[in-house]
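Thanks for the sequence, V.! I ran Ornithine carbamoyltransferase right away. Repeating your input here for the record:
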Amino acid sequence: MRHLLTGFEFSQDEYLDILETASAMKKDPAKFRQELAGRSGAIMFEKPSLRTRTTFELAFYRLGGHGVYLDLQNGELGKRETIADYSRNLCRWVDCLVGRVFSQRTLEELAQYGSVPVINALSDLYHPAQAMADYMTIQEHLGKIKGVKVAYVGDGNNVTNSLFVAGAILGANVTSFNPENCTPDAVVFSKASEIARKNGCTIAVENDISKLKDFDVVYTDTWVSMGDNTPLDAVRKKFNPYQVNKDLVDQSGAQIVMHCLPAHRGYEITDEVMDGNKSVVFDEAENRLHIHMAVLAKLINA
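Predicted structure:
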């Protein structure tokens, strides 16, 4: 039994296999419509979602399975009954647990006490399936992943961490440009850096936005993560130099611009860039569906 909790669980060959399978499913979805016939999964969300919920539900449907959505936004997971008991119960009925949660520890407990694969659909530390969809999109538009130079710009968060993890494993060079005290997780960075060295690529963190030059990809995300009630205007002064606007994209030399969405237009990214000819953000969003299909098929049928 395999889980997708952090993204560190898979080798480069396994990542490439997931990307190849997702591409095949995108090209000919009808070929896979019985892949999960008779199988089911619990889709547990403590946080609101547009893309993640829609694509996981549709992924089960397109593969012939069924995803049961459990709305846990009232915070009952671990309160009404223990996380361990949630897992023990659900594993008697379903073949997979998908969790969009506040704490990484919640997913680890679900996996610890359960008997089916657990998939991280977002936690405070990681967003691994998002990163898989990101690198699938990069491959589609640039024709490769290995050696590609990716610049993440803004707040170092769970998306940044997963771009590091998947990038290191796949051989991409990833630099995160962040204001001071807004850098990615140090433990994740250290572990990803070690993998990157073995794969002949680099993982880096940089504060100086003037060094954003000669990159292939510029990627950004919201300046305030979901669940943080800090008003965007309160952090505008700190993050404004990292706004992805036309001047910054021109400075970077990037061929494509990415955003995991939802976007706060006029804050971390301008309309001109978001809707411009270098933007691939909606291709990226679409690829969430195909990656989720591939991950579900690989883990449930393992």
